[in-house]
Design brief:
The complex is a heterodimer of chains A (275) and B (131). Chain A is mainly alpha-helical and 275 residues long. In chain A, 75% of the residues lie in helices and 4% in strands. Chain A is built from eleven helices and two strands. The radius of gyration of chain B is 19 Å and the shape is elongated. Classes of the chains: A mainly alpha (275), B mainly alpha (131).
Chain lengths: 275, 131
């Protein structure tokens, strides 16, 4: 038993560690790790992953919220969209064949790889949309010289629409969809990248939580798998976040992209061969 | 660091991390105790459940009262399940806290947003139970 448990904890720790270092979260790594390495069915992996994503989001959000990087109001508005998608996704996950889920997972990995390569600088907007201004979706962020720069938000409806998709993918695949959320905020809504990352991390807790609650209520969570996975991923993410400030993330980015592409190929291969 | 002038924001930034950390620590302790008890008391049971998961052979469902009762009697598996439930309380508690704060501050637009999210989370549980 200890061998099995140790293996599972190590797998989860590794997924949390890489997820934290890459900024993509543990979900995109723990689901394929459970499916490919531990030979778990897709639904078991998704249930366990959703719960671990809630834990890592809460752990990482503590510092981001306290230090002011998370834009709480942006998060609360966009959570309406992600929760809608996540509940729908989690309800559909029990009815969609594993082959389709594996294929969707492969596509999401490709999106994450693309996102990792295209991360660029901020494109701040000083005058946001009237709706965004009315909802006080504004903030200040330090620029490269440390001076505070004011930012406002545009394209709230388009960003919200993408958030519904991000929530849907989260509930369907057991991931946080952080790459998609950050892309929606950074690219469409012109939220500064670091604020987007912190805000996405914060929102992931509610998004994955919505999916996790559906899975738990339906009795689709294997406690024996989900409990060690949650502990392992959280520990891995914690250690990863401690190492992150000292790591050469630019150099590691290519390694992450290669890992993501390999997982995408493996998951796509499994889907096409009905494994 | 970014600045935020409003009291509402200051309260949220002070209490949210405390709330998140407290529930996360509580859930982790319950999960860890359950896991250690499982490893020491019934290792064979764990291996059996692990292999059942590999074949997607779902265990028999029990009611919430049964779950809490068996967990209170120190059943490792039930304890871990309770730990997972506590963990999923993190987002629920956080949104509920924001909802109450926005009511107090009479910020009705955000009362609406947080109420919608809370409804979504509760609806998820209800729809999940229906199947």
């Amino acid at each position: 038993m200890l061998k099995i448990l140790g293996g599972l904890l190590a797998l989860a720790f590794g997924a949390g560690f890489i997820g934290s270092l890459s900024g993509l979260g543990g979900g995109v790594f723990i689901v394929p790790a459970l499916v490919i390495v531990a030979h778990m069915p897709m639904t078991v992996a998704i249930g366990a992953s959703l719960i671990s994503v809630v834990a890592t989001s809460a752990g990482a959000s503590v510092a981001f919220v306290r230090d002011g990087w998370t834009n709480l109001k942006v998060a609360m508005v966009l959570e309406c969209a992600t929760v809608t998608g996540a509940v729908a996704g989690a309800l559909l996950a029990g009815k969609i064949p594993a082959v389709v889920l594996e294929l969707l997972f492969a596509l999401m990995m490709l999106q994450s790889a693309y996102f990792s390569l295209r991360k660029q600088g901020d494109d701040l907007v000083e005058h946001g949309d009237p709706l965004a201004r009315r909802l006080e979706l504004v903030g200040d962020v330090p620029d490269e010289s440390g001076k505070l720069a004011h930012y406002e938000i545009v394209n709230l409806p388009a960003g919200s629409a993408l958030m519904v998709v991000a929530g849907l993918m989260s509930g369907l695949l057991g991931i946080g969809s952080g790459a998609l959320k950050v892309m929606a905020m950074d690219y469409f809504m012109h939220v500064p990248l670091k604020v987007s990352s912190a805000t996405s991390n914060f929102m992931i807790g509610v998004t994955a939580g919505a999916g996790a609650l559906v899975f738990l209520a339906r009795g689709d969570v294997f406690t024996s798998i989900a409990a060690p996975v949650a502990l392992g991923v959280t520990a891995g993410a914690l250690i990863g976040s401690r190492i992150l400030p000292h790591a050469n993330v630019r150099a590691l980015r290519m390694v992450f992209v290669v890992i993501l592409l390999l997982i995408a190929i493996e998951m796509g291969w499994r889907a096409f061969n009905g494994i | 660091m970014p600045t935020a002038a409003r009291d509402e924001d200051r309260i949220l930034r002070f209490w949210t991390p405390i709330l998140l950390r407290t529930i996360l620590i509580a859930a982790s302790v319950i999960l860890l105790v359950g896991l250690v008890l499982m490893a020491t008391q019934s290792p064979g049971n764990y291996a059996r459940r692990y292999h059942a998961a590999q074949t997607a052979h779902f265990p028999e469902k029990m009611s919430f009262t049964e779950l809490v009762s068996t967990a209170a009697h120190g059943d490792p598996h039930s304890l871990m399940t309770v730990g997972l439930f506590v963990l999923t309380l993190v987002p629920l508690a956080r949104v509920a806290f924001c909802f109450l704060l926005f009511i107090k501050e009479r910020d009705y637009a955000y009362v609406g947003f947080t109420a919608y999210v809370l409804t979504g989370l509760v609806l998820g549980i209800l729809l999940g139970r229906i199947g």
